[in-house]
Design brief:
The chain is of the alpha/beta class and about 325 residues long. The protein is built from eleven helices and 13 strands. The chain folds into two domains: about 150 residues, NAD(P)-binding Rossmann-like Domain (Rossmann fold); about 130 residues, Dihydrodipicolinate Reductase, domain 2, CATH 3.30.360.
Length: about 325
C-alpha cells in the first residue's frame, strides 16, 4: 500500500501543469541569479526571453555570516520589488500559497535542505540552484525527501547547457579535462561545492555517472581532481583560485581531441529554458542520481585532500 501511495504521488506530480504562464516564486534573494532570471522570464522584450512563467513573489532569506549574501541581499530585493514588481513575502509558507513552482536561489548551500522541506511538503516542483547543498549528507537527504514526497526537482550549473558543452553532443568520450574558477567559502564543508562545482558539472556532462574513485592535489592557488570511471576512463578537473580563470573543456574521443571554444556570458537563458520545460513536465533534465553522484565525487575529493592526496572511493 505504501509503495502504491508513492507511485500515485509520483504519477500526480509528473502530470502536465496548466498551459498558462506559471506563477514562479523565488526563495533567497542574495545572488545575482535572481535579477538575471527574473529579467529573462518577466520581460518579453528581453533578447533572451524565455516564455512560460513569470516571477510573482519572492522570499528574502539570506545568510549574515556569508559576505556575498549579506552585502547583496538588500540590493537584489529592492531590484525585484521596483524593477519587476515582484511581491516580497515574509516567509516560505506565504510564498508557496501564491506560486505554482519554485526557484530556490539562496547562495548559501547550507540553507537549501531546510528551505526545500516545505516546498516538498507542498509538492511544488523546484529548481535548486548551485550548490545543491554544502555537504554530501544534505544532498542525499534532499534527494530522499524529494523521492519520499514524490516531488520532482533538479539542480544544475548553467554551464551544463552552454554552447561549450554542445560541441560534445553525441561523441564517444574516452576521457575529459575541464577547468574553471574554484574560490572557497569557509562555511561550506565540501569546499569545491561553492564554485568548483561548475567545472565538475561540466566534467560529468561529458563523462556521465560511474566514477569509482578520485585523487586530489590541493594548494592555496589551485586544485586538481582526477576521477577514475568504470571501464578505465579518466576525467580531470582543475579549479583555479589565484589566476583569472575562465571555463575550459577538452574531450578525448577515439578519433580526435575536441577543444571547446571559449564562451562569453553565462548560459542563463538555456538553463531557464530547461527549467521551464521541467516545470511543465515534471521530468528533470539532469537525473537526481547524477546530481547526488557529483556530491559523492566532491566528498571523495574532500577526503583525498584531508589524506594528502590518497585515492578515495565514492561512497
Amino acid at each position: 500500500m505504501r509503495r502504491m501511495s508513492r507511485f500515485l504521488l509520483l504519477a500526480l506530480s509528473l502530470s502536465l501543469l496548466p498551459a498558462a504562464d506559471l506563477k514562479v516564486g523565488i526563495i533567497g534573494l542574495d545572488t545575482s541569479h535572481v535579477t538575471a532570471f527574473t529579467g529573462i522570464l518577466n520581460t518579453p522584450s528581453h533578447p533572451n526571453h524565455v516564455p512560460g512563467g513569470k516571477v510573482v513573489a519572492a522570499y528574502r532569506g539570506g545568510s549574515p555570516d556569508v559576505t556575498s549574501s549579506a552585502t547583496r541581499l538588500d540590493k537584489f530585493t529592492e531590484d525585484l520589488r521596483t524593477k519587476y514588481s515582484v511581491e516580497i513575502v515574509p516567509d516560505i509558507p506565504t510564498l508557496l500559497s501564491k506560486v505554482d513552482v519554485v526557484l530556490l536561489e539562496s547562495v548559501d548551500g547550507r540553507k537549501h535542505l531546510e528551505q526545500v522541506k516545505p516546498v516538498f511538503a507542498a509538492r511544488k516542483r523546484v529548481f535548486i540552484d548551485k550548490p545543491l547543498a554544502a555537504t554530501y549528507a544534505d544532498a542525499k537527504e534532499i534527494a530522499r525527501l524529494g523521492r519520499e514526497s514524490g516531488t520532482p526537482w533538479f539542480s544544475s550549473s548553467s554551464l551544463r547547457f552552454s554552447n561549450q558543452l554542445a560541441h560534445f553532443k553525441g561523441l564517444d568520450i574516452l576521457g575529459a579535462y575541464t577547468w574553471g574558477p574554484a574560490s572557497l567559502e569557509e562555511h561550506h564543508q565540501l569546499d569545491l561545492s561553492w564554485y568548483g562545482v561548475h567545472a565538475i558539472e561540466a566534467l560529468y556532462t561529458l563523462m556521465g555517472p560511474g566514477c569509482e574513485w578520485v585523487t586530489r592535489t590541493s594548494t592555496d592557488g589551485a586544485d586538481v581532481v582526477t576521477g577514475h570511471w568504470k571501464g578505465g576512463r579518466i576525467g580531470v578537473v582543475r579549479g583555479e583560485r589565484k589566476s583569472g580563470s575562465d571555463y575550459g573543456i577538452i574531450g578525448y574521443t577515439p578519433k580526435k581531441t575536441v577543444v571547446a571554444p571559449p564562451e562569453k556570458g553565462a548560459a542563463y537563458a538555456a538553463l531557464l529554458g530547461e527549467v521551464m520545460k521541467f516545470f511543465q513536465t515534471g521530468v528533470p533534465p539532469v537525473p537526481n542520481e547524477v546530481t547526488v553522484e557529483i556530491f559523492a565525487f566532491m566528498d571523495a575529493a574532500q577526503r583525498s585532500k584531508g589524506a594528502g592526496g590518497a585515492p578515495m572511493r565514492l561512497n
